[in-house]
Amino acid sequence: MQKIIAWIDDRFPLTKVWNEHLAQYYAPKNFNFWYYFGSLALLVLVNQIVTGIFLTMNYKPDAALAFGSVQYIMYDVSWGWLIRYMHSVGASMFFIIIYLHMFRGLIYGSHKQPRELIWIFGTLIFVALMAEAFMGYLLPWGNMSYWGAQVIISLFTAIPVIGNGLAQWVRGDYVVSDATLNRFFAFHVIALPLVLVALVFVHLVALHKVGSNNPDGVEIKKKKDEKGIPLDGIPFHPYYTVKDIVGVTVFLMVFAAVIFFAPTLGGKFLEHDNFIPANILSTPLDIVPLWYFTPFYSMLRASTTDFTHGMLAIFTMLVAMLAFFTQRGFRAKFLSVAIAGVLLLGMYTLEAKLWGVILMGSSIVLIFFLPWLDRSPVKSIRYRGPLFKGAVIIFVLSFILLGYLGTKSPAAVDLFWFKNVLWAQGFTLLYLAFFVLMPWYTMIDKTKPVPERVTLK
Amino acid sequence: MNKIILSLLLGLLPIVSHAEQGLKLDHVRIDLSDQASLQRGARIFVNYCLSCHNAAYLRYNRMGHDLGISNQLVKQDLLFATNKIGDRMRAAMPAADAKKWFGVAPPDLTLEARYRGPDWIYTYMHSFYRDPKSFSGWNNTVFPHVAMPFVLYGWQGEQRAVFRNVKLVSHVMENGKAVTEVTEERVFSHFVLAKPGTMTPKQYDLAIRDLTNFMVYMGEPAKLERIRIGVYVLIFLAVFLVLAILLKKEYWKDVH
Fold it and tell me: Which CATH number, 3.40.1010.10, 3.40.50.740, 1.10.760.10, 3.40.50.300, labels domain B2-221?
């Protein structure tokens, strides 16, 4: 065995890679519950790729055959139902894990210096994952797949001048059709998975360059022993590999429980309207994306003319005033007025539909800027003040409620007093405010002293 | 601004009382382990539904295997449209003819229970009534103006639908003012059995329950199997979890 390894080491840095990334990669010893989701995300990525390969063996990317081939997998292929449920439930699980993983980064300040690039790569993974999920959802060619794609692609038409041409270019046709299905298949099974794997790779390379953050937000590399090993670090392998086995097992129990006992989760993970083939002549009563897109879908629908001319305009003016009075220097003052001016002009001249697209886009673009919006001197929420804690609570509630409202009709009243659309407008502003106002509230927030070393609870 | 305040106020009003909009569906008890019920349901489905509707994702031999019916018996009692037991369950009637005769081709029913839900199917099969104005002479309260004629009228008999007029109160905006509109609408009240069929209502309920049960099976033949396997998977994972926790504890003893 030694000889074989030596032979390989002469030709490939096997031992070096093993040591640098596992056996001698020192991770903080105080990881808690929230630190399971990174390895779980990797597990689900592998699950999606492996089950995806097996699905592709029987799936037919052809508008006339696609729906039937999925049913062939469900009815005739040995264990086909299991593979398909692992893939469809896996997609929802992927988003649950990624949302929790992102939340972890947010509350422990993992986006802050020196981990900005890890955060940006991670956000790119999130964007690629959304594209991957959206395109994958068209492939079963069910009626909800079809109309979901129809609605989302038609968002491009909101863009002035080039909108219609762009939407047509994306579809390859005047409506979602066989051409669309084929290109979505190509993107879903090869282009985007390659992008995802490459991004996950650089995400990890960047992580291993700077080292993991931890719930205390303490840089463990600042305190090393005489051998240069961080005092609060433990080798990833075996400590975190054995710990992650526990996390993986608990996750697999949840995953298996859904796959075997409620694979559609009452229409949440697989929609009822997707059990009939795509039909251009029959629109489902409510076209609703799957749950993981509903927060963003809610923001899209929240944008009405009343909203852009009212609440959104007022919000923009308030932020501009705040910037104007708190920024020093003529240039900054001028810029805040100019930007607000351009935005307001846009709000009163452009279509509300376009603003819906802009809002939805901004809600994701803002995530990229988090490292620079956050001005707090401390990383972890444990040592931050009430303003940040309150903002996080409001942000999480807004996100969850936007998700809930995204599954409901805008005109109905599902919370209390006001119509869903009004609630969605309010929560959209709170979501935006969490990011836009972050420089101010993180700067004035009272922080607690951060300990020298990590704490174990 | 007035508009905003007004719409806020309108939002505060109690939600418009929609008089019985959306029919209430009857609940049907589904039991996929009741093999006798599934077999009876299969017989009804193959004898009646399969004349016009496909169930093309399911094969005869798969159905026989899952329902405990021998290939011999399937061939003898259930194989009408084909003579190959490995065939998919296709309608006896050609789809092109069906489209000519009914205006639409009858939809494939393999996944109907997953699309509509068992309660819908159960209620639908109870809701046909005589309607001389309709094309087929039948209408349905669950699926108004459905093209399908009532195939099982010999069993259930002929129903007559009784309607009543109700006042519908709605609040609408007109020229920036909130206006309360009262309209009258004809809504379905109940059925009267005008001409009894060969079955008593109780027997008919049971027959439709069997049929619905079978259609739920048909929507996902692997369902019972997946639940059975799922129990073992979870037991395995639970045992594995205990070992994983012990392993982790052992390794982490020296981390302080």
Answer: 1.10.760.10
